[in-house]
Amino acid sequence: MNECKLDDYIETQVCAIRETAGGQCVLLALSGGVDSSVCAALLSRAIPDQVTCLFIDHGFMRLHEGDEIEGVFSQHKLRFLRVDAQARFLGKLRGVTDPEAKRKIIGEEFIRVFEEEAAKLGDIPFLAQGTIYPDIVESGNAQGNLVKSHHNVGGMPDSLSFTGVIEPLASLYKEEVRQLGRKLGLPESLTGRQPFPGPGLAVRVMGEVTGEKLDVLRQADYIARDEISQLEETPQQYFAILTDTRSVGVKDGLRTYDYVVAIRAVTTTDFMTCEYAQLPHQTLRRISQRITREIDAVSRVVYDITEKPPSTVEWE
Fold first, then answer.
1. At what angle do helices 34-46 and 174-183 cross, to 10 degrees?
2. For residues 130 and 297, what is the distance between their CA atoms, to the nearest angstrom?
3. How far is CA 164 from the centre of its chain?
4. How many CA atoms does the CB half-sphere of 204 hold within 13 Å?
5. What gap in Å lies between CA 258 and CA 261, rounded to an integer?
6. In this structure, which long-range contacts are made by residues 86-91, counting pairs with CB atoms below 8 Å and at least 24 apart in sequence?
7. Which of 159, 238, 261, 287 is the most exposed, fewest CB within 10 Å of its CB?
8. Hey, how many other C-beta atoms are within 10 angstroms of the C-beta on 229?
9. Would the pLDDT of 300 be above 90?
């Protein structure tokens, strides 16, 4: 999208937001990711005195990310509120292993928390979300074909108590959203942030989600991203997955039977299709060595070389 089209898009969306919201308040589902951050920037330009940014800390963020998000947005002009709901979300997912069920449960719980917090804040009739075009496509089309549900699309419950939903990015692809964010003056630390699913690490933990598994994945994911980010050219997305498989290994001369971690790195222009990134073997070796040495609960690291299609970028 060129500069003129970006300016036109901003002007059009600012007008649309003002017309929809009128003089009423808007509650923004702020995750701190690219999409919701750009949505926040658009809202702040259109209706700065009417927006509350609500960060629901579901406990599925990457290492230190919740604190980083609070550090950035608590200094922002928008009203920022952080709600600690980690125990609540883990309780809802206890015993759940089906990936689609996880997404639905997390999506439902997000809305329930929003409704409760909105009630505390007074009359907030509108919910804003950073839904982008690939979210809508993957969540189904007119023929009912479903790839996966997104908490801000397929997980929307019928009992939603907001008057309306504002989604100013719904016609854009990820790279267009990044461009828009830069145009709106957001820092590169936000516009360049790695894509992250709405349900967070809950859909990068295979099988049942537990606090222990999340801690293991956070450490593995941090190591993988740290090593890959040092490359001269980095893939568009890269992260770790904690599989629900254990593998025999040897540490300090003793037999182990611990988790297998998978690494996913892809190159893409629109995230509708992708190829696996051909990372240097030395980088993969360092990732494997660090993860297995620094994390006691992991015995093996594998690299995903599957394209989209037939696979999706995420494993769940």
1. 40
2. 35
3. 23
4. 28
5. 10
6. 86/57, 86/58, 86/59, 87/59, 88/113, 89/58, 89/59, 89/60, 89/202, 90/59, 90/209, 90/210, 90/211
7. 159
8. 10
9. yes
147-183 b/e with 16+ CB inside 10 Å = b? ebbbbbbbbbeeeeebeebbbbbbebbbebbbbbbbb
What's the start-to-end Cα distance of the chain, in Å?
30
CB 42 within 8 A of CB 71: no
Is residue 138 a contact partner of residue 148, using CB atoms and an 8 Å limit? yes
* CA–CA–CA angle 143, 146, 151 (5° rounding): 125
Q: For 105-122, what is the mean pLDDT?
A: 86
Confidence of residue 148 (pLDDT cuts 50, 70, 90): very low
Only one residue has tokens 């290994």, namely 249
**Residues facing residue 239 across a β-bridge:** 264
Question: Across-strand partners of 165?
Answer: 127
Nearest CA to 299 out of 241, 233, 253, 255 is that of 255
Tokens 């933990």 belong to 205
Vertex 26 angle, CA 91 and 172, to 5°:
85
On the question of pLDDT at 123 being above 90, the answer is no
**DSSP code per residue over 133-163:** HHHHHHT--TT---S---TTTTT--TT--SS
Q: What is the mean pLDDT of residues 289-298?
A: 97
- CA gap 220, 12 in Å, rounded: 42
Residues 208, 93: contact at Cβ < 8 Å? yes
Furthest-apart CA pair in the chain: how many Å? Answer: 68
pLDDT digits (tens, 9 = 90+) for 235-264: 999 999 999 999 999 998 999 999 999 999
The C-alpha R_g of the chain, in whole angstroms, comes to 20
